[in-house]
Amino acid sequence: MTTIRVLLSLVAINNWFLHQLDVNTAFLHGDLNETDYMKIPHGLHTTNPSPVCKLNKSIYGLKQASRQWHEKLTKVLLSYGFNKSHYDHSLLTKTKHSNFTAILIYVDDLVLIGNDFSEIQLTKQLLDTKFNIKDLGNLKFFLGLEIARSSKGIALYQRKYVLDLLSETGMFTAKPCSTPMDYNIKLHSSSGSPFPDPAPYRRLLGKLLYLTNSRPDISYAVSHLSQFNSCPTDQHHQAANRILRYIKSSPALGLFFLSQNTTILKGFSDSDWAACLDTIKSVTGWCFFLGSSLISWKSKKQTTMSKSSAEAKYIALGMASCEAQWLLYLFHDLHIPHPNPISLYCDNNSALHIAANPVFHECTKHIEIDCHIVRERVQNDTLHLLLIPSSSQLADLLTKPLSPMPFHSNISKLGMLNFHLQACGGVVEHQIC
Questions:
Q1: Could you give the residue ranges of the DSSP H alpha helices within 188-347?
Q2: How many distinct structural domains can be found in the chain?
Q3: Is the pLDDT reported for residue 238 higher than 60?
């Protein structure tokens, strides 16, 4: 999903073409590398007492069908001059002189991107000859994500997904609320009484987890409630319903990738020390921007306990630095130059000192070795660490529940817009081809 957001942002900046394709009966195109047999279909009569059918090609229902289809499609694209990304195996790119074409694959759904329309048409014809594809035109709806484009940029949101979720859960007429979590309540594993049937809670959290692909504002709440999946309580269920009440207030809230933007990466890293009441572990939150467009974020509980807030912040920097390095690798595959170090902002001076100080000392000897990749990447100019005040920390809403005023202030700074409000200024009003 991060690759999708990166590509949408680059399409908006460079005014590239953005098309969508669908492959008809995709799994039937896969080649089998081993001998497989199946029971004969109903209605087919034979005199053989134990009849079976030998499969010459892949078929729906075969456990390796998706893998074989992906392998067949990749081989065909490689033969057409595409190169497979080493850092996202669903991405293939082709560069010829000044022409650039990219294909992003999700099973049988393909997103085709490029700056040369004739090359895009040629790619469509080649794929149609080989697989019989359906040309869906400009990308508007992909994997539950709604994409709207105008001269001002590209909007990414999940309004239909939200409305269907509210209707399915019976929360369509519920009273909206201003934040996804109550900042006055601290939930833990024994909060409330056990929920009689955990299955609906788990299904709801799974659906909300997919919604976080365009809604970083609910990432912390969904991540926090997901740790109670094994044994949810009535209070956990009420907290999940509060998320539904929150998204009801703005079902069309989403991300906007500006066309007037830069390709400079910057990130924000934060943590909430010992936030988990059950394990006393800290929560990490980070987000990355391409220019002013949000393209990547994460809210996750740390795997180890930290002895201080500085250590928790430093571990969060380590996780953010891995994402920064991966984004640089992805930029390399997309032929997007990024000569300057990525600016990574942190609101803890002690964590910055640990990253800058190469001398071993007592207060850092217990920190895991892999966390010191921050120090290494600062030294090789991959990262440039900067101090910011806590009031300007945009990753704050990914680490803890906030009160309404700072919460909505952070949302606006993340570049999120409610695309069905007139106050948006018509950013998706006029569709362009």
A1: 198-211, 219-226, 234-249, 309-333
A2: 3
A3: yes
Q: What is the pLDDT of residue 430?
A: 42
Residue 45: give the domain boundaries: 2-139
List beta partners, residue 255.
156, 416
433 within some domain: no
264 and 405 inside one domain: yes
Confidence (pLDDT) at 31:
86
Distance of CA 229 to the CA centre of its chain: 21
Structure tokens at 20: 């969508």
Do 103 and 133 form a contact (C-beta atoms < 8 A)?
A: no
The size of the chain, in residues, is 433
Cα(first)–Cα(last) distance of the chain, in Å? 24
Strand arrangement, sheet containing 153-157: 141-142, 145-150, 153-157, 253-258, 416-418
Q: What is the distance of C-alpha 83 from the center of its chain?
A: 23
Q: pLDDT per residue over 29-77, tens digit each? A: 888 888 888 888 888 877 777 788 888 888 888 888 888 999 999 999 9
pLDDT at 363: 57
* CA angle (56 as vertex; 55, 59 as ends), nearest 5: 60
